[in-house]
From TrEMBL:
Source organism per UniProt: Spirosoma radiotolerans
Protein known as: Beta-lactamase-related domain-containing protein
Domain Beta-lactamase-related, residue spans: 73-289
Highest taxon of source: Bacteria
Length: 383
C-alpha cells in the first residue's frame, strides 16, 4: 500500500490518540522478568471522604469514587510508603488491562537518556546533537544540545493540530519516523522558549538508537523493564513493521500497576533490591527545580504553549525539567514531580510524602488540574 495513502488513512480513520493506540499501531514487545517480580503490598485502605473538585474555577464536593467514575477514569492507584492503599478500575478495565500511556512515555525516555549518559554512550547533556546526527546538517542549529531537547526548549518549528499537514499529526501517524525527522527545522535560538514539541522526542530516540546500537524498546527491556519487578510484559508502539522506529512521544503501553512500579523506582532513587537501575544522580537532576542555566528561563521568556502547559511551566509553583513536570512544595522542601499525557494520564510522585499516584483515563474529565486533587489526597493521608 502506498505510504502516503496509509498515512492519510491513519489520520482520517483513527483521528485522535487514545488508550487503545496499542491495538492500532504495530508494537514491539518489552519482556519482563517474572523472577524479579516486585509484589505490591497492601496497606490500610485510603479513607478519602468527600474531595474538592474544581472545574472552570468552580469548586464542588464529591466522593472520590463517584468523581473518578464520571470523569472517564479507567484506572486509579495510590501507593503510600510502598503499600497499595487505593486501587480502582472503571468501564470494564481491570488490573490486567494494558493501555497506551500517551505522553507519560516521556518519563521512560528520560530514564533511558539518563542511563545512556551514565554508561557514556551519550557524551553529556550539554553536548551538541548535530555531531551524532550529521544527516540533519543545514536543518538544526549547531547550538542545539541534548539538554535543550530534554527541556522542550529546542527552538525547532512545530505546528500543532490534527490536520494532516501539521507536524503533530505527521509525527503521530507517520509510517517512517526517521524520514519524518529529516523535516525538522530550527527557527529560533535553542534555550529561549519553552515549546512542547514532539520532534524533541524523535531526536532523543534517534540519538539513543545510534549510540546504543539497539532499538529503543530493546534498550528499555534490557535496562529497565526486565530489572524493575514488572508484573507483566510491556510494549512500545512503532511507526510500521517496515521502519520499526519506536513512537517516542506517545507509544509506551503497560498496566497501571506496572506504571506505578516505575513510579516507585523513582521514589526509591532508581534502586530495586540490590541493583541501581536508573542512576540516582540522574533522578535528582531530572526532577529537581531547574537552575537558571539548566533550562529556558520560563518565567522571563514567554512560552509557545497555551494553558495549562505553558501556564504551568511559567507559574511560581510549576516547572518542567528533563521531560518531567514539577510541583514545588516550598523553597526548602523537595518538590513533587509528574509525567503527564493527553486525556489525563499521570504518574504523580511525591518523595516528600512517599507517595505515587497513577491515573489513566479516556478523557480529561470535568476538572481543571488533576495535580490539585492528587495533593488533596496526599494531605488526607497525613491527617
Amino acid at each position: 500500500m502506498d505510504t502516503n495513502l496509509s498515512y492519510l488513512y491513519r489520520c482520517i480513520a483513527w483521528n485522535l490518540p487514545n488508550l487503545d493506540d496499542h491495538r492500532r499501531f504495530p508494537i514491539q514487545l518489552i519482556p519482563n522478568n517474572p523472577e524479579r517480580l516486585m509484589p505490591l503490598l497492601l496497606g490500610p485502605a485510603l479513607k478519602a471522604g468527600p474531595v474538592t473538585i474544581t472545574h472552570q474555577q468552580k469548586a464542588s464536593q464529591q466522593s472520590l469514587e463517584s468523581f473518578l467514575h464520571q470523569s472517564g477514569t479507567t484506572s486509579f492507584l495510590i501507593i503510600h510508603q510502598n503499600k497499595l492503599i487505593y486501587e480502582n478500575y472503571f468501564d470494564d478495565y481491570t488490573a490486567n488491562s494494558v493501555v497506551t500511556s500517551l505522553s507519560v512515555t516521556h518519563a521512560l525516555v528520560s530514564a533511558l537518556v539518563g542511563i545512556a549518559l551514565n554508561e557514556g554512550s551519550l557524551p553529556g547533556v550539554d553536548s551538541p546533537v548535530l555531531p551524532q546526527l550529521p544527516e540533519l546538517a543545514n536543518r538544526i542549529s549547531p547550538a542545539l544540545t541534548i539538554r535543550h531537547l530534554l527541556c522542550m526548549s529546542s527552538g525547532l518549528l512545530y505546528r500543532e493540530g490534527q490536520m494532516p499537514w501539521s507536524d503533530e499529526a505527521r509525527i503521530h501517524y507517520s509510517l517512517d519516523l526517521r524520514q519524518q525527522l529529516l523535516e525538522c527545522e530550527s527557527i529560533e535560538p535553542p534555550g529561549r522558549y519553552y515549546h512542547y514539541n514532539k520532534y524533541n522526542l524523535l531526536l532523543l530516540g534517534r540519538l539513543l538508537e545510534k549510540v546504543t546500537g539497539m532499538a529503543v524498546p530493546d534498550y528499555c527491556a534490557q535496562k529497565i523493564w526486565s530489572r524493575m519487578g514488572a508484573e507483566q510484559p510491556a510494549s512500545w508502539n512503532i511507526d510500521s513493521i517496515h521502519s520499526g522506529f519506536a513512537k517516542m512521544d506517545t507509544g509506551f503501553n503497560a498496566t497501571a500497576r506496572d506504571v506505578a512500579r516505575f513510579g516507585l523506582l523513582y521514589l526509591n532513587q532508581g534502586r530495586f533490591g540490590d541493583q541501581q537501575i536508573i542512576p540516582e544522580a540522574w533522578i535528582t537532576q531530572s526532577t529537581s527545580i531547574p537552575l537558571f542555566d539548566e533550562a529556558a528561563d520560563y518565567q522571563r521568556y514567554m512560552s509557545r504553549n497555551k494553558p495549562p502547559l505553558g501556564q504551568w511551566v511559567s507559574s511560581p509553583i510549576g516547572y518542567y525539567k528533563y521531560l518531567w513536570w514539577g510541583y514545588r512544595n516550598g523553597p526548602h522542601q523537595e518538590s513533587d514531580f509528574f509525567a503527564l499525557g493527553d486525556l489525563g494520564q499521570f504518574i504523580y510522585c511525591s518523595p516528600l510524602h512517599d507517595t505515587v499516584i497513577v491515573r489513566f483515563g479516556k478523557r480529561w474529565g470535568n476538572i481543571d488540574w488533576w495535580p490539585v486533587l492528587f495533593r488533596e489526597l496526599i494531605a488526607k493521608m497525613r491527617n
